[in-house]
Known about the structure:
The chain has 3 domains: 26-149, Immunoglobulin-like; 201-368, Immunoglobulin-like, CATH 2.60.40; 384-586, Cupredoxins -  blue copper proteins (Immunoglobulin-like). The chain is 7% helix and 39% strand. The protein contains 6 helices and 37 strands. A hairpin with a 2-residue loop joins strand 2 and strand 3 (43-50). The longest helix has 11 residues, at 201-211. The radius of gyration is 23 Å and the shape is globular.
Amino acid sequence: MGCHVYLFACSLLLLVAASTASGERIVEHTFNVRNWTLNRLCNSQVITAVNDSLPGPTIHARDGDVLIIHVFNESPYNLTIHWHGIFQMLSAWADGPDMVTQCPIRPGTKYTYKFKIIRQEGTLWWHGHLSAIRATVYGALIIRPRARNSYPFPKPYREVPILLGILTHRILIHSFIMFHGSRFQLTNSNAVAGEWWNTNVMDVDREAIALGSGPNISDAYTINGLPGDLYPCSRHKMYKLKVKQGKTYLLRIINGAVENQLFYKIANHKMTVVAIDACYTNPYVTDVLAISPGQTVDVLLTADQPVGSYYMAARPYAPVVGLPFDNTTTRGVIVYDRAPSSRKPLMPLLPSFNDTPTAHKFYTNPTSLISWPLWDPVPLKVDHEMFVTVGMAVEACPPNTTCLGPIRGTRFSASMNNESFVLPTGLSMLQAFYFNVGGVYTTDFPAKPPIEFDYTNLAINNNLPMLFAPKGTKVTKLKFNSTVEMVLQNIAILGRDNHPMHLHGFNFYVLAQGFGNYNPTTDRRKFNLINPQMRNTIAVPFGGWAVIRFVANNPGVWFMHCHIEAHVPMGMATAFVVENGPTPETTLPPPPADLPIC
């Protein structure tokens, strides 16, 4: 292909389906990442996007395909792309988290991600994995069964990606939680009171991190990039899905928001859940979904209502008292064929913002479809047990710096087992692992918190030293093919919360979930070892716990972190270093020649 033809094809999004010598199908895309002007909410805003679109391009593939994605960074920011939920078996170099598996792709440079999809089907997604860039750099990654295989449910009439996201034209960074003993209240900083930022989300995010202030607040939620008619200047910027009465549609729903868990509902319609996080489930009928950032849900929707128009809507699930959040609602519309345009669509009755029972019911009820050929039974022998607390913390403000943390002279931090994670700067952790370079990370991440305490009792905030967590780059080293069981326990430091925790490189079994402090004597009786749901992202219940189990059968360095964007730079993360296996087929290959250099 000639140079000019190649560049022309790149600008249109190159998609090639070819075959390798071994018969593997190759799916190839080009991502041009650059700043793009978008008109939303009565404003003209510059965002960073892929191929001038929001959301970015949808990748369609099949189990067994090889994906090749050429990423050209034409933006002014460092970036990486993460293929959320892809196992990356023996291709950890393509996983994407900055300074974990690679150095960032710097402005004006490129990197080609190449990986094979192995034993996966369903709805996943891709997104930027450096700072707030994922707010606008994201898209769907849809994996269908191999050519001669079928879905474990009747073939739908049509498949429809539904990507839930946010718009962040203005971000409030002057509000934060002020600590008063064991009580918290929303307070404004006099230095920046009443100031709203109308600038690029990356710039504002960088400043918020430096000040150590609270989470960024979006202006709107979106469905497939459109806010819907409840927002200003958005009457005609609403997603519309046309359906035929009697037909069944597969909705592939993705929560691409950076901060909020979301409720999703369609007026007068039931949905049948058939997969979560690209893992098939037993059919589960519901009229409302709860989806945390990073999660996906596949549902079958039958257009079985009278001909007309019906709103689909999403609003946040936000149970934390006193924490500011975007309390708006986005909506799209489902329009039946031949529906009269004069009739106003019906609006669903959404759960309240703090409806924890509804959220918990949805998060806990789905179970795995164990008749699926790719299902692996739950391993019963555990080699590595961990009890890991997750929650907020504080750190001292750097000298000669103004910080807006919860205590005077501090800024917000976060931790797992009282260790606040810091990414390395000179060499990625995976490079250090492969080349056996010391000094980049240590393998002493604690398997339990340094002290036991009443984890979900707000009175812990009266013990000031407990609020501080030391900084470090501590990981857990695992033998190849070992089984890990982890209790994830939310804590009440700086307030009770819920945290969506994402594990790279693996799916895990969700054995049990509950509220309050985990009790190993009574709560182990609740373990589902027969058909537990499988996920890559778990919404640890508000003021509660979850128990997960996974097999470390993939050599490399695998990030585990909260999927609320603001919590990662604060330190709510860790990593697993999985040793190579005994054969060449279980050994990490060398890095690609074009791997970015720090």
